[in-house]
């Protein structure tokens, strides 16, 4: 095991249990680094701080796992953290109308770079760190032992593959062992808030579906009745489906991926067939494969009474926050200018580098530039299966507001 000594004055945040240690905070490591491995972390005065995983090929050189001296850094500790994460979601396994939710939420569950979601009988893991890649077989084995899924599919997060020096790949585990993909494997079906979804194996963004918006989709449904709706960055249409069930007059869905939009239409048909959506819901939906920013600029003034703005992560790091703030501001400014007076906008950011206060400030700037007033009706975040760890504010990555625009 390595011994890592932190520079004087650089241990304040990690003493408060922030899990990330960058190379500039490290005074020395003993013995000399050869390969990734467990490390004891000490202050400059020799006091124990935490156990972590040290890897000089990672963009976060030391990821802290446990601040308990009694813990034994090992595969068994990783298994214990998996068990505890699953146990914390016990209530989700008995929900009557939802079979999709998050099992492991990365550093918020003390497992850096590991995001695991349940979709019906399958589990999908998003790997975004070298730690997660190294311990994936251990994590998959423990998840299989606890839950017995039909398959565990692990996908490397494209956004972090380059940063972490990982190759992009998809791996599969059955009965605790890594296996080859079953080419005849069917799409997985699951329900969320009573609405049916279907995801193809190894397809789509990250895990193929975003569980973090579950509560927000249900909230937005309550505003849709009798409104013309724009679902911008719609992906496969979770918000569209809820708007239709909520009684929207029409929904225009815009996304850069035509295949995602085609799948959106399929899911509208699926829910009509299951009598979850009203008859003729398909006739209320139009899809537009397009750049969402440009499409919004070109849209008709006053056409929409409700807009949903759910863009991809625009601020991937703190260094990119300034440019991202400008992009978020431009998006929301144009939406405020285009929406009908008194209209509702549900606007989101999934950028961990942007705080909720930053996001709220940006909305104020956008409203000023749009010569509009806004009223905040609801403050939105991810569901409780995506907990926010108070010592790790970056875990509050998803934030949103429902606003009314007055012009």
What does this structure look like?
There is one protein chain. The protein has 407 residues and is α/β, with parallel strands linked by helices. Helices cover 28% and strands 28% of the residues. It contains 10 helices and 21 strands. It has helices at 12-15, 75-88, 130-147, 158-164, 214-221, 238-245, 258-273, 292-298, 321-338, 356-369; strands spanning 2-6, 20-21, 26-30, 37-42, 48-54, 62-66, 100-105, 114-119, 122-127, 151-156, 170-174, 177-179, 188-192, 195-199, 228-232, 250-255, 285-289, 306-309, 344-349, 373-381, 399-406. Strands 17-16-15-18-19-21-20 form a 7-stranded mixed beta sheet, sandwiched between helices. It has a 6-stranded mixed beta sheet with strand order 2-6-5-4-1-3, with no helix packed on it. A hairpin with a 5-residue loop joins strand 4 and strand 5. Helix 2 packs across helix 3 (130-147), helix 5 (214-221) packs parallel to helix 6 and helix 9 (321-338) crosses helix 10 (356-369). The longest helix is centred in the middle third of the chain and has 18 residues, at 130-147. It is globular, with a radius of gyration of 22 Å. It starts with a strand and ends with a strand. One of its GO terms (cellular component) is cytoplasm. It is found in: Cytoplasm. Keywords: Cytoplasm, Methyltransferase, S-adenosyl-L-methionine, Transferase. GO terms for molecular function: methyltransferase activity; RNA binding. It comes from Candidatus Ornithospirochaeta stercoripullorum.
């Amino acid at each position: 095991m390595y011994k890592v000594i932190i520079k004087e004055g650089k241990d304040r945040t990690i003493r408060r249990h922030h899990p990330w240690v960058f190379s500039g905070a490290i005074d020395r490591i003993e013995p000399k680094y050869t390969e990734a491995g467990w490390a004891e972390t000490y202050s400059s005065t020799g006091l124990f701080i935490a156990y972590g995983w040290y890897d000089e090929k990672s963009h976060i050189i030391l990821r802290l796992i446990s601040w308990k001296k009694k813990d034994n850094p090992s595969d068994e500790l990783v298994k214990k953290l998996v068990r505890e994460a699953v146990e914390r979601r016990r209530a989700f396994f008995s929900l009557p109308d939802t079979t999709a939710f998050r099992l492991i939420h990365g550093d918020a569950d003390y497992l850096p770079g590991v995001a695991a979601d349940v979709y019906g009988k399958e589990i999908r893991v998003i790997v975004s760190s070298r730690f997660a890649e190294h311990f994936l077989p251990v994590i998959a084995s423990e998840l299989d032992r606890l839950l017995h899924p039909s398959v565990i599919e692990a996908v490397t997060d494209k956004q972090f593959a380059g940063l972490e020096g990982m190759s992009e790949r998809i791996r599969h585990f059955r009965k605790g062992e890594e296996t080859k993909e079953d080419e005849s494997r069917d799409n997985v079906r699951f329900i969320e808030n009573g609405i049916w979804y279907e995801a193809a194996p190894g397809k789509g963004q990250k895990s193929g579906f975003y569980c973090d918006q579950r509560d927000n989709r249900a909230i937005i449904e309550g505003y849709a009745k009798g409104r013309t709706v724009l679902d911008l960055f719609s992906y496969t249409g979770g918000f569209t489906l809820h708007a239709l069930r909520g009684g929207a007059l029409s929904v225009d869905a815009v996304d850069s991926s035509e295949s995602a939009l085609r799948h959106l239409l399929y899911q509208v048909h699926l829910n009509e067939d299951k009598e979850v959506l009203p008859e003729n819901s398909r006739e209320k939906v139009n899809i537009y494969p397009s750049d969402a920013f440009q499409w919004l600029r070109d849209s008709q003034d006053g056409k929409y009474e409700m807009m949903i703005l759910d863009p991809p992560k625009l601020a991937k790091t703190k260094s990119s926050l300034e440019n991202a703030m400008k992009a978020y501001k431009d998006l929301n400014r144009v939406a405020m200018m285009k929406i009908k007076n008194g209209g509702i906008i549900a606007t989101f950011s999934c950028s961990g580098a942007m705080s909720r206060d930053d996001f709220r400030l940006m909305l104020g700037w956008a409203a000023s530039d749009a010569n509009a007033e806004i009223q905040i009706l609801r403050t939105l975040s991810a569901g409780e299966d995506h907990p926010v760890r108070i010592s790790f504010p970056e875990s509050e990555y998803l934030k949103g507001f429902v606003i009314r625009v007055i012009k």
